Amino acid sequence: MDNHGGWMETAFNTRDPVYLQVVRLFKERIVTGRLSAGEAIPSRREIASLLKMNPNTAQRAYKEMEEQGLIVTEGNSPSRITRDEEVLRHIRSELLGEAVRTFIGSIRNMKVPLTEIVELVKGEYEADVTGGRNNGGGDA
Amino acid sequence: MIHIQDAHKRYRGRKVLDGVTFKAEKGQITCLVGMNGAGKSTLLKAIMGLVPLSRGTIKVDGVQTKRELYEKVSFIPDHAAMPGGYRLEEGLQFMDDYYASWNPTRADELMAFFQLNARDRVGNLSKGTAAKFGLVLGLAADTEFVLMDEPFSGIDVFSREMIGEVFSSRLVEERGVLVTTHEIGEIEYLLDRAVLLKDGKVARDIDCEQVRDEDGKSVLDVMREVYRT
Amino acid sequence: MSQYFKLLALEVRRFRYVLAGIMVYTLIVECVAVALDINNHSRLFEWNNDSRHSFAEVIRNTQSGFQLAIVIPVAVLLAYALLIWYRDWFGRHPFIYRQMTIPGGRAPLYFSKLTAILLFVFSMVAWQLVLMSVLRIEYVWLTPDAMQEAVDFTEAMTSNEVFNTFLLPPSFKAFALNYGLGILLILILFTGVLMERSYRIMGIVAGLIYAALNVTLLILPTTFGLYLYSSEIWAICLIVFGLEVAAALWISLILVSKKVSA
Description:
The complex is a heterotrimer. By secondary structure, chain A is mostly helical. Chain A has helices at 18-31, 44-51, 55-67, 85-107, 114-133; strands at 71-72, 80-81. In chain A, a hairpin with a 7-residue loop joins strand 1 (71-72) and strand 2 (80-81). Chain B is α/β, with parallel strands linked by helices. Chain B has one domain: Rossmann fold (3-Layer(aba) Sandwich), CATH 3.40.50. Chain B contains 8 helices and 9 strands. In chain B, strands 5-6-7-3-8-9 form a 6-stranded mixed β-sheet, sandwiched between helices. In chain B, strands 2-1-4 form a 3-stranded antiparallel β-sheet, with helices on one face. Chain C is an all-alpha fold. Chain C folds into 2 domains: 1-168, no CATH class; 170-262, no CATH class. In chain C, 80% of the residues lie in helices and 2% in strands. Chain C has helices at residues 2-47, 55-61, 63-86, 96-99, 107-142, 153-159, 161-167, 172-219, 230-259; strands at 53-54, 148-149. Chain C has a two-stranded parallel sheet. In chain C, helix 2 (55-61) runs parallel beside helix 6 (153-159) and helix 3 packs across helix 8. Chains in contact: A-B, B-C. The interface between B and C is medium-sized, with 28 and 23 residues.
């Protein structure tokens, strides 16, 4: 269970249902690779304690994740992230799609031509990549 | 389940409680919300028999008697409720002497968690430390229900974080918790239910996650609706 | 039952220093009074060699000393009959919250406080008896042999007006009367306190009326001297007394169980 160290205190916003925020947290971690397919996750009680949240909410989050196929529980063993490639791909495209929609939504009113958008995205992406390699060094 | 039915209470001529009815279930964290003087403390005290009601009934798991009540329900008031000359260890000993449901091991764990010194005297504690000690006294017993009266008032941020941790840990699991506060901001995400009191009555009785899910509102938003009109 | 004993132990323990204090006070005042009297008489003795001074006479002469010696403890104990309740309501961490919420109900709480006060009173009475022996030793130690006169210890005891009238009246009737009234007084005080804690100002009013009622009913039979024999009057008073004790207990228990506010 070496995920214990990885669960930082997450600030929950109070307008979205907390259990959905937890589900989203898991999805993000799957997509970013912090949680691998088939990896065991903390129990409901453990996660409630780690994230400092209400155990009932943790329960609900796990139920939701099971329904969405995100996690699998077999008998008394700890729950695991699904190995189902299709589910994993779906999560990835879900989060990606959300990010893109948010981006498009925020620049919609600026009426920028697509080619310019693509150029900007490309530049920013590359800068981000090299900046990451240089540990936050100057512009590329 | 703690079931309060049609509670009325008059205090110094004012109708503090004017027909309050609600339930607090085991395994859930219920929060009583209201402005100062709204009767939240009075309700908790009434459950514990510390204050008589003018009218109405309170049943804990269906029974109304006092005898076994105190082994089932813990009350954490906004002070330590021990003689000032007592050392903390004497306060702990008191609980051990009088309550069969007292769990000394858990008491020691909590004392360590809150970083409390058993040799200190109750009268010398700061407000925050006294609040933590109060939590030890209330949570170390194996009771089914815990009533907390303004656990966050007048306490610094870090102590609040510690107290918040208490809510999420197994200390609170499988017990029914009834908390009162007038500052809901920091603990909102921990709650299962919120009962909003206004003018001595229950204005709203909500399932917090449901309200977020269906209406996209936080409990704070609901509070604004209720108390700003 | 065990809750009662634990609470009683708690009450006694809380008061131990004050109790020790008034015991020491009584000891000192009476020793000083006796010493002063012996000293006075020594001067007289120098003048008149036949004038012996017995222990009983010493006691007879030091009545004001005894009165002084018991008036403070009496005041303290009377005050504590009220404070034993009120101290738990006031302060930053009112202990009454705990006392009212321990398993086992409120009756042990009430009786533990009542018994505690009675224990303190009887301790002081016992202490006073012990002191008489102590004073006798002091007398023997301080008085020159030539001046001493042997008397029965009982004569010394009966010379003590304080004892005769209040603490240890020779007749059983007087003894029962004094202590009966004393206990009733404490019961009425307790009831008054609980009335105030239940109904605040209205409670004080009710308490005063209640006390007045008790006193009136108790005294009333004695005015029937014209119509009844004294033994009949005494019997009626006894019955009234019994009823008042029962009423005080009953009212107090109801108040402490159902009406009192933390």
